[in-house]
Amino acid sequence: MQNDKRTPQGQWPKGASGNPAGRPAGIRNKSTELLEALLEGEGEKLTSKAIQLALQGDLQALRLCLERLLPPCKERRIDLPLPDVRTSQDTSAALSTVLAAVGDGRITPGEGQTVTEIVEARTRLIQVEDHDRRIAKLEKALPKDKDKDKDKDKEGRR
Questions:
Q1: Which of 32-46, 57-71, 121-135, 136-150 has the lowest mean pLDDT?
Q2: Would you tell me the crossing angle of helices 88-104 and 109-141 to the nearest 10 degrees?
């Protein structure tokens, strides 16, 4: 075997190429370029014709229009007014609102889970900020000069 940089499993590491002299990034396939040249300037006409055929009842044209021209929506915007989450009590109120919305069918369970994860992330942030404030307050309450405390400890040991 030649001196390559493959892993013991025979795979190339991420970012390494088995053919460093291969096609540069961004270079398109010649057949793709040829088809684009043939269709140049005809895209609008072809799209209009596909829509026309779909409207006339051609099921394949209809399927093409629905699948390609109008891609499926993966997410939707939901209108769910939540209270401003600033405390743990606010978190409880927000999650109750989400639960009620799922129960009423205003949002899907998946959407409810997503909103719940967002509210929980906000709650964790609030907890971290609260801990930081409490630690800072404790540090301020500690004696300022630690060296004097160390000297006192040494004197007490003698």
A1: 136-150
A2: 180
Report angle CA 20, 22, 24 to the nearest 5 degrees.
100
Distance CA 34, CA 102 (A): 51
For residue range 84-112, list pLDDT tens digits in order. 999 888 999 999 999 999 999 999 999 99
CA distances from 50 to 69, 70, 77, 92 (A): 10, 13, 30, 52
CA geometry: angle at 68 spanning 65 and 78, to 5°?
100
Tell if the pTM clears 0.70, that is, is over it. Answer: no
pLDDT interval class at 46 (50, 70, 90): confident
Query: Residue 35, Cα to own-chain centre: how many angstroms?
Result: 35
